[in-house]
Write a structure and sequence with these properties.
Layout (H helix, E strand, L loop, with lengths): L2 H11 L5 H12 L2 H6 L2 H7 L4 H39 L5 H11 L33 H4 L3 H12 L2
Helix pairs in contact: 1-5, 5-6
């Protein structure tokens, strides 16, 4: 594993609550700086009595979740600039699709579908949910949905 990948994997693992991740990091953090720098992660895992396949799984899950959160952060932080650019284009004669999309997004035009392909926060794309989550009631799972559940909801859309 290259140094960059190793650093990213360890950083992601630090956000994991998985017992294997915690046990590995406890052993890793107890090692001297030179051991942490030069010893293979497998050697540290073996010294901690951790099954390598379980550790690899913990690394994979942590990296996947960490990457999804990073992508969400990038998208959310850049969303105002994207919307601003869409509004600028919507103001041009050829921007009728942008105007329509913006009007649908903010609810100025009626829609027979849920707002967006995944629905509003708290709705998770289910038009029969019968409620709309109030912003004050939205929890962290509504703001940052589980990437696995998002992929499951996207699968039928991609097959069309």
């Amino acid at each position: 594993m290259c140094a960059r990948s190793r650093g990213a994997a360890l950083a992601a693992l630090r956000f994991s609550s998985h017992p294997v991740a915690k046990a590995f990091l406890k052993k890793y953090d107890s090692c001297s700086p030179s051991v942490r720098q030069f010893a293979p992660l497998e050697a540290i895992a073996i010294a901690a009595g951790i099954d390598l396949a379980h550790l690899l799984g913990a690394f994979f899950l942590a990296l996947r979740k960490h990457s999804a959160m990073a992508v969400s952060l990038i998208a959310i932080s850049n969303h105002p600039a994207i919307v601003k650019a869409q509004v600028c284009y919507a103001l041009t004669p050829g921007g009728w699709r942008d105007r329509e999309m913006l009007n649908l997004a903010v609810g100025f035009l009626p829609s027979d579908k849920t707002n967006g392909f995944l629905g509003k926060p708290g709705n998770h794309g289910d038009a029969s949910a019968g409620h709309k989550a109030d912003e004050a009631e939205a929890d962290v799972n509504d703001i940052f949905p589980d990437p696995v559940e998002t992929q499951k909801r996207l699968a039928p859309i991609r097959q069309k």
